[in-house]
Amino acid sequence: MKRNTIIMAIAAMLTIGLVIASCVSTKVTDKSGSQLWSENCQRCHNTPPASAFTNTQWEVINTHMRQRAMLTETEYKKITEFMQAGD
Predict the structure, then answer these.
(1) According to the 3-state scheme, what is the secondary structure of 32-71?
(2) What's the gap between Cα 24 and its chain centre?
(3) Which of 82, 76, 78, 73 lies closest to 51 in space, CA to CA?
(4) Higher pLDDT residue, 16 or 40?
(5) CA geometry: angle at 34 spanning 32 and 24, to 5°?
(6) What pLDDT sits at residue 21?
(7) Where in the chain are the domains?
(8) 50 in Cβ contact with 83 (< 8 Å)
């Protein structure tokens, strides 16, 4: 009896986790580069204005920060495009 209850509880938690994960990934795709920049870059440090670096420099910076901040490909692209627009 206890074993079935534990298995069902684990299954329920996994299902809830998958639902939450799918909701989060959907929301990220709806966010602008500006929003993602604010949420992911400014939370750790003050970032320079977009005009402080060239487009090429932003690609290098954001590639490095993508790994450090564990950004998805979509987040990386949107943030990079946002920062390059200020150049």
Answers:
(1) CHHHHHHHHCCCCCCCCCHHHCCHHHHHHHHHHHHHHHCC
(2) 10
(3) 82
(4) 40
(5) 45
(6) 56
(7) 1-30, 32-87
(8) yes
Rounded distance, CA 62 to CA 21, Å? 24
CA angle 60, 76, 84 (to 5 degrees): 60
Whole-model pTM above 0.70?
no
Rounded alpha-carbon distances, angstroms, from residue 87 to 53, 55, 69, 72, 84: 7, 7, 23, 23, 5
86 versus 32: which is more confidently predicted? Answer: 32
Cα radius of gyration rounded to whole Å, the chain: 18
